[in-house]
Amino acid sequence: MFNQGLSLEQAPPISVPFRFFLTAPIFAILIGVMFLVYPAEVITNRYSNEAIAMVHMFTLGVLSMIIFGAMQQMMPVLAGAPIKRAKLFASVVHSFLTLGTIFFVLKFLYNKEEFLIAAIACLCISFLTFFITAIKLLFKVKYVTSTVNVMKLFAITGVLTTLLGLHLAIAHLTGNITSTHYSFVNIHILLGIFGFAALLIIGVSFQVIPMFYVALDFPKSVQNRLPISIFVLILSYFAFAFLNLDFYIYKVLFAIFFVIYAFHGLNSLNNRRRPVSDVTLWYWKVSLYSLVIAMLNWLFVPQDSSYLLTILFAFGFLFSLLQGMIYKIIPFLCWFHLTSKGYFDIPTIKEVINEDLIKIHFYIYMLSYIFFLLYGFFNEIFVDIAATLFILSNILFLINCILGMKKYASISKKEPLQTFVQS
């Protein structure tokens, strides 16, 4: 099950990633509430303050929260790059990311400059602490895999995204909105979504899919060339933005790269060496198919509002995949930490979180996803239904995560020998 290059003995305390995984669904619930509270035409208008607040609640409170939590587990295990004083590091990154997200959202909902100043301070502390540490550790790794290389690219794009976000926030704060402001906004979005989030997901899946699903490895050519090609394409957007080059060529190249990834990901999952039933596969497949549809939508459908593209990419691709990944990571961490402490009578990885509950969560989440898409063609009632289902799905997501963690806590309170005798 475990590939070469894994360093399980260097894993951080289990509380490190768990705090991030428990916080993300709470912000997701608040996103659903925002969809219900504000008029659909306001919340889906990408230029409205409410939409900016909600988008950043997703990118900061959900996306970054899950990624930062997972990376603090994956850097030591997949890259052999342990973080010193892991609990303190996690506390700083998590607390300031949580506060920064809240302050940022409040700024755009209530238009108070004090909130933006607080958000800038908190988010800079969180992001720069994380990325400076990540760059320092990752570039010292001796055993370099394709996943480690992608982690390096992720860290670089993360720093660039942070610095651009800081520039844009200061521009808002000072009222210094220049003619190039919206070009920088587009670069910030591109770096954040395609570089910070998608690039890391691609790189990690090279190792996670074969490891967790006993599936085919991605071709070496894809592992070695695809991430760096996406990274170079992201950076080349500066030329497209400021030199008035044909942006459609850029979109075609991006679509080709992401469809290549989705094709090989689905090929790996559909040709598993041990094709047992696993509900988390549903999240991965929905994610990868949504990615293909999103790219086709981006290429061939006029992006008057970009609403459908946003839902396909954010809720269809990114969030679906991250939920499926968390449902694998939490049981694996529970099993690993218990076995490493010498416990014998413990649940298997598939028993840590009840599969029936995961299925219920999946069905509710898929219904919310479908209704969000239907709103793009019909009236506001569909977004209200979608938001309600989205809230319910994330409440269940949170409950499932808590149940898995409680199962770990209840076993770890006993003496290892006691569980052996009872078995």
From TrEMBL:
Q: Which UniProt keywords apply?
A: Membrane, Transmembrane, Transmembrane helix
User: Does the UniProt entry include the keyword Transmembrane?
Assistant: yes
User: Which positions, given as ranges, span the membrane?
Assistant: 20-39, 51-68, 88-110, 116-139, 151-175, 187-214, 226-243, 249-269, 281-301, 307-336, 381-403
Supply the name of the protein: Uncharacterized protein
Recite the lineage of the species: Bacteria, Pseudomonadati, Campylobacterota, Epsilonproteobacteria, Campylobacterales
